[in-house]
């Protein structure tokens, strides 16, 4: 069948289930409302980024819903593919920002990477991975050399997976370092935590960790799906369980992860300006002066 006459069943490998798409859209709307409420209560938070990502997820699932009713058009497949590829990037960006904030909250000496690099490095990596995947996807639809496009897109997915795993490792190192109160970077001065751990803060960070794991699960699935599409194509169940569920968990658990105290220096030696969402990171001299 010609590419120009492919319908949704040809592209998806199935007709998206309308009931599941409605349920997914409804659940994501609930998560979105939670973050809208959080943003209203704490405008300095990064809840607005989660809202954008969740709206993208909602848009993607609405496209899947309409794809059930209009089987003969491929438009909805293309739209859902793009928005469900872009939306998780906003979730990941929030994870990077939150680990950056927690690093300032407890002290940059407990972070293997200097706090400001979490956002700079990993957001850039996600954008590069997205561009590579889109470029590869475009080439794979070209009858001239579809295999080249496939391998380029696969390289983008694998690159994103590697970066996500690296971030998870850095977050794990930070958690262990804070729990043991053992700095992982040599910085002159005190080795104590800037702010004491509390049950509420630990719960908030646990929610951040759960969100991070959910993002990792999704990208592992996406990599496996892309590498061996024939194994997953034809069954919507894999996509529902390993794409929607992790993204819904991420959207839901990022709400308590945005615990407002991390935006304020409570018993902290860090300057208050550093807790604004538009603030800049500590310089090395500032880190040293605070730790003295």
TrEMBL record:
tRNA processing among keywords: no
Bilayer-spanning residue ranges: 20-40, 47-67, 73-97, 117-136, 148-179, 200-221, 241-259
Subcellular compartments: Membrane
Membrane topology: Multi-pass membrane protein
GO cellular component, one term: plasma membrane
Key words of the record: Membrane, Transmembrane, Transmembrane helix
Pfam families assigned to the protein according to its UniProt record, in alphabetical order: RTA1 (PF04479)
Alphabetical list of InterPro entries matching this protein: RTA1 (IPR007568)
Superkingdom per UniProt: Eukaryota
Keyword hit for S-adenosyl-L-methionine: no
PANTHER family: PROTEIN RTA1-RELATED, SPHINGOID LONG-CHAIN BASE TRANSPORTER RSB1
Protein name listed in UniProt: RTA1 like protein
Originating species: Schizosaccharomyces cryophilus (strain OY26 / ATCC MYA-4695 / CBS 11777 / NBRC 106824 / NRRL Y48691)
